[in-house]
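Morning. Coffee machine broken again, so started the prediction first thing and wrote up yesterday's gels while waiting. Chain of 302 residues, entered below exactly as on the submission form.
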Amino acid sequence: MELSIIIVSYNVRDLLRACIHSIFVQLGKIPLEVIVVDNCSSDESATMVEKEFPSVKIIRNHFNAGFSEANNQGINIATGDYLLLLNPDTLLLDDSICRLISFVREKNNTVLAAPKLLNADRSLQYSAWHDKKLSVLLQETFRIFTSAYALEKYAIPYEVENVAGAAMLFSKSLLERTGNLDTDFFWMEDFDFCYRVRKCGGAVFYFPDAVVIHHGGKSVIQDPGIMYANDNIGKLKFYKKHKSAFQSIIAGLLILFHLFAYTFFLLLLSPFSKKYREKLFPYFHATVKFLKYIFGKKVPIT
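Came back before lunch.
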């Protein structure tokens, strides 16, 4: 088996159907397997896969296991020489994944490579980022900087620090050096995995000769409070795992200031606009969950 494609799905049945269809249309000539891990969807996603794509392997979870744990379930049964972690809200174009495999093979299977991601309107989607250094966290707190690479870096294959987890391809031999995804992360798991690839002597590449459409965040946007909470908790978990205790404390304070400041800002503006009222509760929810986490309480991912 040359390629195993692993898709973790949660309540995006129609997008999942389109994604799987695009796989078989674009990659029907190479030996591959498709593994769908359904995180307890309520929209009959798993049943749809079983009925419409009988060759696809399906794992039904009875709870939302999150991105990392569910991907690991797929990884553990995958038989391909190359693994593609693919979001269900994506569409493959042309022979992009074949090009991606060729690129990884040319690099002696020591790299993780990600394609160019396009929005539904075919505009560029930023999908390569610098590490979340303390200076980056500080600037992101005040919305004066983004950690995404500059636009000109998206034109040619380029070695980067981190890529989006929406579509990541790597060899099974590289996985043997890095280990599986860290199930302690519900967010920032792609940053953690890219960091470990680099730490074990590999490299992370953005490869724009391969193109994938990514509708973006269709699962997580169903509950922005969970999204904000796990995003910020994930950043602190990353610091606690890979950085010093001092850096972790500073990162925690910056994140906490960001959450408090924006919650207060939204509270002041909420009487004047529905837009701010809709954002207030998710930010408040994220602040409460973050406080619970830093005070040592177990915080569920949902």
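The chain is about 45% helix and 20% strand. Going to sketch it on the whiteboard this afternoon.
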